[in-house]
Design brief:
341 residues, alpha/beta, Rossmann fold, 13 helices, globular
Amino acid sequence: MPEHSYGFGSRLLHRLALSRSVARASFDIERLLYGSKTADTSGNRHVFVSGLARAGTTILMRRIYETGQFRSLTYRDMPFVLAPNLWGTFSRPSVKPGTAKERAHGDGVLVDYDSPEALDEVYWRIFCGDSYLHPDRLTSMQADDEAIEGFRAYVNHILMGHGDKRYLSKNNNNILRLNSISRAFPNAVFLIPFRHPASQARSLHKQHLRFSVEHEQDDFSRRYMSWLAHHEFGSDHRPFVFEAVESNYRPSTLDYWIQLWTGVLHQVLATLPDNANLVCYERLCDETAVVWPLLVERLALPDEAATPEFVNANRTDDAQIQSKELAPALRLYEELRARSL
């Protein structure tokens, strides 16, 4: 469940389970006990949703998850997220339904124990953290063969006991390692949502201010996000940095987030692998009847998959933004739209 609902015992357990030594040991034990029981899914058409935060990645992932074709990590897999089968064996007797609550973002998205979430980042933090996690930024990375093999095994364990379901991941940090995941799963499909820069930057700015206050009031909330390597905003914000370019602005300003949007999406566009698909969130909401069937085809979903509803409730008018950073962002936005589904 969301970190703000955890009591003292749960917080202590999370602190222990998500430490590097215990998490690594749990992964090793999981592989020792269940490795021979897993199937090789390296050729499967797994789906990875990734992008700069506040682009609609969660909503898109949930609509895909609702088709019933996929297995994702959920809050029930926490805190021993690297040992899904071992932890499931111990926790299953105490499983109980959870009450859906609004997540800490305050954006109307409800979560409970069965909500899919971006939890596989723990694997990358534990085994590759030194290569991309830095005190002030997150950088692109290339996983070595051992890490690739380990991630492939990890996904196999997540899917164990779930029939012929495919893996579905929503992890924004994966845009730092698209090529590495492609090596692990050559037939995987990547979806890279993006939003209009004025809307997305304003949402990022709002969330940064919100979580900065929360982290001052609750240090566990800050630690929790760091354990999951979620540094998109808040007091431990660390931006995606693909090139050695320093920002002229502070995260407390909207200009910072518009400039970040441009830098990240420019690099994504320049390095997009063949199996990646750009998804414009405005187009997904306004032209759902056109875009959703394209997604059904790209993701090899059943033809009868119902067309879901996508609502873009927080549009920002360009005229409301006074920033010299907006013009280059808008030019890039039009280029991204031209390349999107």
